[in-house]
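Data availability excerpt. The first of two example chains:
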Amino acid sequence: MEKYCDRPRKPCSPTWRAFLDNPVTDLVSIDLFVVLTVRFKLLFILLVLAHDRRKLVHFNVTENPIAQWTAQQIVEAFPWDSAPKYLLRDRDPIYGNVFRRRVDSMGIEEVLAAPRSPWQNPYIERLIGTVRRDRLDQFIVLNEHHLRKILTCYFAYYHRWRTHLSLAMDSPDWRPVHPPDQGTVVEFPEIGGLHHHYERLAA
């Protein structure tokens, strides 16, 4: 009978919670998720997210996510001397020796989430859910090229107009605040009319 009883959830580790909640400007997350095409082919999407402004630093799509490919994505995400101090990721075997050596050579310290603990990487998990709900659930993906086009269009909207409670209802790219005397509120469609943004324009 005990296994059927509802057990209270243990609170999150205070150390880990503080690590995530602190305004760490040098922390990024990385994760992969999959999309099924119209021909039932699996495509893998890699996301690299900066925590401070919830900004997507880099994304790419592949049919074959091997460690060498994943390592190359980190180089493309952080060219020259722009590498962050910390990289938060799960324990997926895709991040093999080649990936770890490349990250270490860039001076990045890896922070590993515990096994089967997606809550320890919440910002990028939330972004993946957002991308699915806001965009991918509305489309049938034809192929890799089509998926790149869909995501490029969505992330342009995400950075400029999608608001976040954690950013005081601002978007990852700062938006100007329009005073009431600037004009009436006008609605503008985004990503084919699935979403909208609003601006004040003088008559």
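And the second chain:
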Amino acid sequence: MAPLLACVVVSGRSGIAISAELGTMRAGGEVEILDSQGIDPMTFLIMPRVLAVMVSVFCLAVVIAVTMVVTGYAVGASMEAIRNTWEDFVAEISRNFDFQDVVFFTTKTLVAGGFAGVICCVEGISVRDATTDVPRVTSRAGIRALTAVFAVSAILSILFYDIFLVFQFG
């Protein structure tokens, strides 16, 4: 759940901002100026943003996962639904956690973050000469990025665990 939430937050906040920034740069002619100076816009503008989105999604997903565990324990212990100590609680989580879960978490955050970053950048850079295109493209980028995040999450869940929502495959 943490990778999906992190992707939604980063796409909705930073992805749309990236799309608007690149769209404004394209409409203002800044991208063409970089290209005319021999600077590849893909390398200079898009790749750093895509990598930043990927790293941001991963880091935020780790923070969300840790917060979920701590909050889950705090609420459960305060309602007396969890009667274990914190150490026992964490030990139980560790026993039920395997290497496949770590690979899945990392893959899901990086792949979904990469898709969201690429989609937002490509949509932003697709603006043509009118500044009035920026809001339309920005909105489209957000919707497409979120759709891709949900699709990638579903596909990776099926590939890793043979399960989608509550439906078991295989």
